[in-house]
UniProtKB/TrEMBL annotation:
Residues 295-351 form the AFP-like domain. Its EC number is 2.5.1.57. GO terms for biological process: carbohydrate biosynthetic process. SUPFAM superfamilies: AFP III-like domain (SSF51269), Aldolase (SSF51569). It comes from Nitrosococcus halophilus (strain Nc4). It is an enzyme of class 2 (transferase). Keywords: Transferase. It comes from the Bacteria. One of its GO terms (molecular function) is N-acylneuraminate-9-phosphate synthase activity. This is N-acylneuraminate-9-phosphate synthase. InterPro entries: AFP_Neu5c_C_sf, Aldolase_TIM, PseI-like, PseI/NeuA/B-like_N, Pseudaminic_synth_PseI, SAF, SAF_AFP_Neu5Ac, SAF_PseI/NeuA/NeuB.
Length: 351
């Protein structure tokens, strides 16, 4: 089954190379100048899409700094601040969106965003966003799913933490509300994520189970998990992106730098190209190499009646003589004419 469709001017599907998304997230560190520099760096690195996040602290949570609204988990990057403070620090001002979208478009990137509530969807519609991303933490927010699906635009949904039953509910809601073009991204919602928790073998199962395109929202370090995902069928790869991790920021610790993003673009496309098809025998590019296989050659000057022995019959390169499988058959046979050293063996002078 083919699920190919376009996001902007880019085809998504099994027959097309991976769509690589650079996630800006909060790596702008509240500087529009830095945000635009990240856009330019993403374009120079060869990314295809640029993704923002559209929310405010008030659309995400309550302004409380106690109980479950305060982050005290020592294993997170954000220990010691409230959820409200985190989102105040990380959000991308809505007045920046149009400037960022415009700059991305000028540079050949496809700009879009993750809306976190209905007001964000309405706002992004005014910018003519070409598609929408649903974050893992919102993949069970069915009212939001329906709102986004009703735009009729392609949806990319991260599957972090979701059970099969939850994903089934989400996918049904999206399709019933009008989404025809759907991509599910395998995702592990830890930051950074260890490679061993990525479970990219889930990717072909996602495609088969839900009959849609699939990909990876990757929070691991480096590009290895993404390349592995592409070989298993991922056609969309999303990675957080920054200028330099040393610059700091809410997402910097698990974000790619420009050189790494360039490697991601190159290596995932190579992985996709390498998939090819099930095939045996020499490829077109290998045909010239067949001439350098081992074959049977005469290794000494011979006169008519001389017997072939291990001393004068060799299995060597190049490959212009009889195949090596005839070696034992020919030992003890006589030659019927003068044969010079270096002659490829054929049946014409074997008695």
């Amino acid at each position: 089954m083919s699920n190919s469709f376009k996001i902007g001017n880019r085809w998504i599907g099994r027959d097309y190379p991976p769509f690589i998304i650079a996630e800006l997230s909060g790596n702008h560190n509240q500087s529009l100048e830095r945000a635009l520099a990240i856009v330019e760096a993403a374009a120079q690195a060869g990314a295809h899409g640029l993704k923002l996040q559209t929310y405010t602290a008030d659309t995400m949570t309550l302004d409380l700094a106690e109980g479950e609204f305060f982050i005290d988990d020592p294993n997170t990057l954000w220990k010691g601040c409230s959820l409200y403070e985190l989102y105040q620090q990380a959000y991308t001002p809505w007045e920046w969106h149009e400037l960022i979208f415009a700059r991305a478009g000028e540079l050949g990137l496809i700009p879009f965003s993750t809306p976190f509530d209905e007001t964000a969807v309405d706002f992004l519609e005014t910018l003519d966003a070409p598609c929408y991303k649903i974050a893992s933490f919102e993949n069970t927010d069915i009212p939001l799913i329906r709102k986004v699906a009703a735009t009729g635009k392609p949806m990319i949904i991260s599957t972090g933490m979701a059970t099969v039953a939850e994903l089934d509910e989400t996918v049904r809601a999206a399709r019933e509300a009008g989404c025809q073009d759907l991509i599910l991204l395998k995702c592990t919602s830890t930051y950074p994520a260890p490679p061993e928790s990525s479970n990219v073998r889930t990717i072909p199962h996602l495609r088969e189970l839900f009959g849609c395109e699939v990909g990876l929202s990757d929070h691991t370090m480096g590009v290895g998990a993404a390349v592995a995902a592409v070989t298993l069928g991922a056609r969309v790869i999303e990675k957080h992106f920054t200028l330099r991790r040393a610059d700091g920021g809410v997402d910097s610790a698990f974000s790619l730098e420009p050189e790494e993003m360039a490697a991601l673009v190159t290596e995932t496309e190579r992985g996709w190209q390498a998939l090819g098809e099930v095939r045996y025998g020499p490829t077109e590019t290998e045909m010239a190499s067949t001439g350098f296989r081992r074959s049977l050659y005469i290794a000494a000057d011979l006169q008519p009646g001389d017997v072939l022995t291990p001393a004068n019959l060799r299995r060597i390169r190049p490959g212009h003589g009889l195949p090596p499988k005839y070696y034992d058959t020919l030992l003890g046979k006589k030659v019927t004419k003068v044969v010079s050293k270096g002659t490829p063996v054929d049946w014409s002078f074997i008695g």
